[in-house]
Amino acid sequence: MPRPITTGLDGSTESRAAAEWAAREATLRRLPLHLVHAWAMEAPTARTAMEPEVRRHWALRILREAEADLSARHPDLSISAEQVHEPPVAALLERGERAEALVLGSRGHGAVTGFLLGSVGLRVLSRAACPVVLVRKESLREPDRAGDEVVVGVQATGEPAGALLDFAFTAAAARRLPLRAVRAWRLPPLFAHSPEALRQMDEDGGIEAHERRALAETLRPLREKFPDVPVVEHVELGSATEVLLTAATRARLLAVGRRTEHPALATRLGHVAYAVLHHAHCPIAVVPHD
User: Fold this and answer.
1) Average pLDDT for residues 107-126, to the nearest whole number?
2) Average pLDDT over residues 262-273
3) What residues does the UspA domain cover (predicted)?
4) 128: domain CATH number?
5) Which of 119, 158, 160, 264 is the least crowded, having the fewest Cβ atoms under 10 Å away?
6) Residue 228 and residue 217: Cα distance in Å, rounded?
7) What is the separation of C-alpha 42 from the centre of its chain, rounded to a whole number of angstroms?
8) What span, in angstroms and rounded, lies between the C-alpha atoms of 100 and 3?
9) Nearest-CA neighbor of 8 among 71, 64, 81, 70?
10) Residue 196 has pLDDT above 70, yes or no
11) Number of domains making up the chain
12) Which residues, including other chains, have CB under 8 Å from residue 20's CB and lie 6 or more apart?
C-alpha cells in the first residue's frame, strides 16, 4: 500500500490551507491523503476550560468537515482521517515514519503556527523521519506563472544529497516543471583546504569550476532517473541563504536539506533551512538526509 501524504489539522485557517495543499500534492503524486488531529489533556485555563468529551466532539467535527470538504473538491482522492489522544509532536513523528511527507500550516514570515505552535513545530521539523512541508495560506491563492520552477538547495554533494534530490525531482516531475538546483560557494579562508583539495580545484579550473563539477556529478543519477525533468544547474558565489532565496523568487516549491547525523542537535535546524522558513514566499520542504 502506498504511503500517504499526512497533514495535521486543528481547525485554523493555516491548517486548512496545509490540508488543501496536501490534497493537491497527493493528487499529483497519486497517493492517499491522511488527516490527523492530535490533542493531549491540558490543565484547564480560561481558554481551554471545556470537558474532554466536548473537546473530543469538536476535534472530530474538525476532521469530518475537512474530510467532506476535501472529498468534494478532490473526488478521486483517497482520504482517511484519524483523531488521536496524544501530544501533537509524538503523534506526527510516529505517523511521519509511515508517510511520504508531513504537511503543516505556517503563518507567513514568523514562527511556525497552525497545527503546531512554537517549539512544537521546530521539534517536528528537526526530528521527522520524512520530508516536512510548511505551507502559508497565501501561497494557495497565487496563480501558476510562466517560468515557475521547483527549486532545491544543494549544500551537500554526492550520496548525502540523494534523498533531498529525489524529493525535489519527484515534485518537479509531478508538476511538469523544471528543477533549479542551487549551489552557493564562497572564497575559502587561507589554509582552509588540504593540498590535495587545492590540487583538485586547480585541475578543475578553479573553485567555481570545481563547484559546478561537484553539482553536475551529484545531479547525474537523478537526471538519469527523471529524464523528462528539465534541470537548471545554478552555481553562484555568495551566501547560501541569500543565493537560495534570490533563486527561489519564482519557486512553486523550495526544498532544503536537514542533516540527521547529529543526535545532540536533534531540535535544531541548519541556518539555511531556518532562514528560508522565515523568508521564502512559497511552500518549503525540509528533507532529512545523512
Assistant:
1) 57
2) 65
3) 1-136, 150-288
4) 3.40.50.620
5) 264
6) 18
7) 30
8) 6
9) 81
10) no
11) 2
12) 70, 73, 140
Q: Which of 141, 162, 185 is the last residue of a domain?
A: 141
- Which tens digit of pLDDT belongs to each residue from 7-55? 998 888 888 999 999 999 999 999 999 999 987 655 555 555 556 666 6
Whether the Cβ atoms of residue 272 and residue 155 lie closer than 8 Å to each other: yes
3-class SS of residue 61: helix
Q: What's residue 255's pLDDT?
A: 97
Residue 159 belongs to domain with CATH number: 3.40.50.12370
C-alpha–C-alpha distance, residues 180 and 248, integer Å: 9
Contacts with 213 (C-beta within 8 Å, 6 or more apart), sequence order: 204
CA–CA gap between residue 284 and residue 261 (Å, rounded): 22
**The predicted structure's pLDDT at residue 115:** 39
Name the nearest CA neighbour of 164 among 173, 152, 172.
Answer: 152
**pLDDT for position 109:** 45
Closest alpha carbon to 96 in 3, 233, 10: 3
Distance of CA 25 to the CA centre of its chain: 12
Neighbours of 3 (CB within 10 A): 14
Number of Cβ within a 10 Å radius of residue 174:
18
- Shared-domain flag, residues 167 and 233: yes
pLDDT tens sequence across 212-252: 999 999 999 999 999 999 999 999 999 999 999 999 999 99
Query: Where do we find the cell 497519486?
Result: 30
